[in-house]
Inverse folding.
C-alpha cells in the first residue's frame, strides 16, 4: 500500500512538472529559431598548430548535443556560423626563486558570428577570452601534452558558453 502511494505521488509530481512546461533536457532553439546551421572550420590566427580543429570539433560537438539545430552543408543552411581564433597566448603563472617556471597559463581569444542566409547578424561576440593553467614539466613531450590538454579544455569551455549564448532560452 505504501509502495503504491509512493508511486502515485511520484507520478503526480512528474505530471505536474511536465504540465508547467519544465524540461529536463538542455536542448533549446538557436536564436532566430534557426533549425539548420552551417559551421565553418574556425580560422586560426594564432601560432598554435591545429587549434582550429580542436575548437571547431568542440564547438560542433556541443552544438549538436545541446541545441535543437542540425549542422548541415551550406546549401541547406538557414544560418552560418564563422569563428576566428585571434590569439593563443602562453605565459608564466608561477616561478621558483631561481626563476624556473612551474606553471603556465594558456589564454585563447576567439571571435564568433552567426548570420542568416540574407546576411542578418543574429549573434556576434568579439574578443571572447578563456584561460586554463597547467604544470610545467622538464620533459618537452610532457609539456607539449599538458599545453595541448589545456587548449582542449579551453575549447570545450568556450563551446559550452557559446552554445548557451546561441540558444533562445539564454
Amino acid at each position: 500500500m505504501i509502495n503504491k502511494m509512493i508511486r502515485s505521488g511520484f507520478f503526480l509530481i512528474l505530471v505536474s512538472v511536465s504540465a508547467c512546461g519544465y524540461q529536463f533536457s538542455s536542448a533549446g532553439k538557436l536564436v532566430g529559431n534557426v533549425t539548420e546551421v552551417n559551421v565553418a572550420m574556425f580560422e586560426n590566427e594564432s601560432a598554435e598548430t591545429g587549434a582550429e580543429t580542436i575548437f571547431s570539433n568542440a564547438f560542433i560537438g556541443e552544438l549538436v548535443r545541446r541545441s535543437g539545430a542540425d549542422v548541415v552543408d551550406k546549401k541547406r543552411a538557414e544560418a552560418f556560423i564563422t569563428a576566428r581564433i585571434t590569439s593563443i597566448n602562453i605565459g608564466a603563472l608561477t616561478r621558483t626563486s631561481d626563476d624556473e617556471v612551474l606553471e603556465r597559463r594558456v589564454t585563447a581569444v576567439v571571435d564568433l558570428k552567426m548570420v542568416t542566409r540574407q546576411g542578418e547578424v543574429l549573434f556576434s561576440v568579439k574578443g571572447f577570452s578563456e584561460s586554463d593553467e597547467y604544470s610545467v614539466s622538464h620533459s618537452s613531450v610532457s609539456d607539449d601534452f599538458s599545453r595541448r590538454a589545456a587548449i582542449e579544455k579551453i575549447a570545450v569551455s568556450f563551446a559550452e558558453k557559446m552554445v548557451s549564448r546561441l540558444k533562445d532560452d539564454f
Summary: Residues 88 and 108 are 4 Å apart (CA to CA). The first strand starts at residue 36 and ends at 39. The chain has three helices and six strands. The two ends are 44 Å apart (CA to CA).
